Amino acid sequence: MQPVASTPAAYLKGKTMREYAIVTAGGKIDDDFALRILSENKAAFLVAADRGLVFLDRHGIVPDLVVGDFDSAGEEYVRQYLQTHPEVRVKSFHWEKDDTDTEIAAKEAVEMGCTRIDFLGATGSRFDHVLGNVQVLHMLLEQGVTGRILDPCNRITMHREHFRIRRSEQWGKYVSFFAWGGNVEGLTLKGFHFPMVDGCLKPSRAIAVSNQIEDAYAEVSFRSGRLLMVESKDTP
Questions:
Q1: Alpha carbon of 23 to those of 20, 103, 151: distances in Å?
Q2: Domains in the chain, ordered, with CATH?
Q3: Could you report the per-residue pLDDT of 150-189, keeping only the tens digit for each?
Q4: SS3 assignment, position 135
Q5: Where are the extended beta strands (E) located within 121-183?
Q6: What is the pTM of this model?
Q7: Which of 44, 69, 89, 175 has its CA 20 to 30 A from that of 105?
């Protein structure tokens, strides 16, 4: 299969530009959780990355775009899929490529004008894939795009400026922070069980793991660096 040449302008002709995208990747996808997210966001620009198409197809959900080298879904599967869904746009890539399928999907969504992207199936048994997907969050952050990796137990985000978290809206019980790619200087955590004032979070130390929000909302600020936040809860 060869890459399908298409420009965003040509593809979006007659369509409404969407700022929010959902990418279904090839990791573990909890059916009930993912279907709820997709049902609540039917207007999202939906991108299937390789095996993420299999999940959508199983539930009768048609994506706006399919990308990948299809080493997981299989090229024959994709060919058969296109026979019954010829309207779906597919961009195929050789498996010897620089970008992961999830990164390609994210870049396509950005090219379409999306400024917020949620990733389903971006976690699972392949820790190398999980780390690669966290790197995608960094890539998006540098472009001013908000990315979130979601699964039933985790919400993973990356930040470079002050933000707040409402306790009523947090993802699970725990909130952990990690320095990504260098020190996070001047870290101040307010409204948490373990507060911090003007601290330094280093990649070599895990001193901000399993914190909890105690106030109505928590406030996070820092002077410099890239802050990785994992909101989590234990598996039921």
A1: 10, 10, 12
A2: 8-152 (3.40.50.10240), 159-232 (2.60.120.320)
A3: 999 999 999 999 999 999 999 999 999 999 999 999 999 9
A4: helix
A5: 146-151, 154-159, 163-166, 174-179
A6: 0.89
A7: 175
